[in-house]
Amino acid sequence: MAKNIRLKTARTQKDLSQEQLADAVDVTRQTISAIERGDYNPTINLCIKICKVLGVTLNDLFWEE
Question: Where is each HTH cro/C1-type domain found (predicted)?
Answer without folding.
Answer: 7-61
